[in-house]
Amino acid sequence: MVATQDAVFGELTEEGPNYRAVGWKGAVVLMLKTQIGLGVLSIPEVFDVLGLIPGVICLVAIAICTSWSGYIVGVFKVRHPDVYGLDDVGRKILGRFGYESFGIAFALFCIFVAGSGILGIATDLNALSSHGACTAIFVAVAAVVGFSLGSIQTLGRISWLAWVGTISILVSILILTVSVGVQDRPSAAPLEGEFKSNYKLFGSPDAAGAFAALSSIVFAYAGVPAYFNIVSEMRDPRDFTKSLIYCQTIMSAVYIAIGVVVYYYCGSYVASPALGSAGPLMKKVCYGIALPGLIVSTTMYIHFAAKYFFIRFLRGTSHLARNTKIHWMTWFGCTGSVAGIAYIIASAIPVFGGLVSLVGALLGTLICFQPMGGMWLYDHWNKPRSAKWMLMVFWCFFIIISGTFLMVSGTYGSVVGIIDSYNKSGGSAAWSCADNSNSS
User: Fold this and answer.
1) CA 220 to CA 360: how far, in whole Å?
2) Are 48 and 178 in contact (CB under 8 A)?
3) By CB distance 3.0 to 4.6 Å, which of 3, 19, 81, 115 could disulfide with 342?
4) Residues 362-379 as b or e (16 or more Cβ within 10 Å = b)
5) In a 3-state reduction of DSSP, which class is residue 438?
6) Residue-wise over 207-222: b if at least 16 C-beta within 10 A, else e?
7) What are the percentages of helix, strand and coil residues in the chain, rounded to 5?
8) Which backbone phi and psi does 326 adopt, to 5 degrees?
9) DSSP state, 278?
């Protein structure tokens, strides 16, 4: 029996799951699927709020910041092999307070994203079936599927699903992009008269709208903390930087290309999510092709949150990396609980879109910016002072301060959006049967 020792999982043998099976290509597709979901389809609406030029500039700036954050994740893991997730980082930097707060923030963020994914699957099924069943039934079905696939033990085995999910969402948004370019007018535009896109190079949003738009961009890049899970399950974590470069380059190119083209042709008549922008028929086509991508996104975030609790409960015991009864009971208990909470969130909370935006602004920004600046300072604060050191210290404080600003301002914008939604519609009903795909 061949055994290897891992600083997180302990002794890995053939009698248990192989938690170190992800290659660099698998890491690329896992990171892409962690990031690219229907979040990309909010980018055209962001450009409508900010204007095309400021929107692209803001997107590139946030891409640079989050790419650096991702790079620091890989470097920190290599330097500290005992780190598996953001909670371990918090323990090193801030002790028990950091361990609890970073871990809970990451778990809550993943659970709310999983809830968003469950609702997205229900929306997809509504669009495909022309509301063929009660939406509450579709939400329950989505939760069961998310639990089933999220219970796959290792990211190495999930990586093949990530290939399917990434390809499906990319093909879907490519079809959408082509469709809005060749059609006469977007589906939300007036049916009579000549249509001309009213896209704006520069927008004039109020403060709340601008902050909410920036939060949407951050949310589209908010998979960075999950990179810890991915690099920790790579065969060679030193290959992580190569995977990161491929991922961030592909993802940013997709975001800019899709956002610019869809907004250029649709203007303010772009739907959100944008899959409904090309009319009823193409809406069904795009949603049908995107369905595997939505399922895989939900699967991964259920898995990430469950793995956080699983490792916390069993770390340091022989059950973590062996197929014992306690191992399986704990694992299914974690995945079932996460999927159940995500289902309740997706079903029960009114103004769900606004609430997810709020959690993205409050928790997504918190775990994408500030910890990474702290990680570099933790490793280098006592190093010899030099011009490069001073420049990096300035950069880290810029990351921490800008992340805090985006967190506070984005939270403000999201709260204003929730209040406006309640004032207009009074919120949405819990466990509703109503068709939730018409707004798309």
Assistant:
1) 9
2) no
3) 115
4) bbbbbbbbbbbbbbbebe
5) coil
6) ebbbbbbbbbbbbbbb
7) 75, 0, 25
8) -65, -40
9) G
| Domain assignments of the chain as residue spans, ordered by start | 19-115+155-228+235-296+351-425
Residue whose structure tokens are 């008269």? 193
Does the pTM of the predicted model rise above 0.90? yes
Are the CB atoms for 358 and 109 separated by under 8 Å? no
Q: 320-345: per-residue pLDDT in tens? A: 989 899 999 999 999 999 999 999 98
- Residue 83's identity, in one-letter code, is V
Q: Is 271 left (phi over 0), alpha (psi -120 to 50) or beta?
A: beta
Please tell me the distance from the alpha carbon of residue 193 to that of residue 109, in angstroms, as a whole number.
Answer: 45
Q: Rounded to whole angstroms, how far apart are CA atoms 6 and 10?
A: 5
Closest CA relative to residue 71, chosen from 12, 105, 41, 31: 31
41: DSSP letter: G
Distance CA 210, CA 203 (A): 9
What DSSP string describes 238-255?
GGHHHHHHHHHHHHHHHH
User: What does residue 5 show for φ and ψ, rounded to 5 degrees?
Assistant: -105, 130
Query: pLDDT of 266-302, one tens digit each?
Result: 888 877 666 777 777 887 888 899 899 999 999 999 9
Beta bridge partners of 22: 234
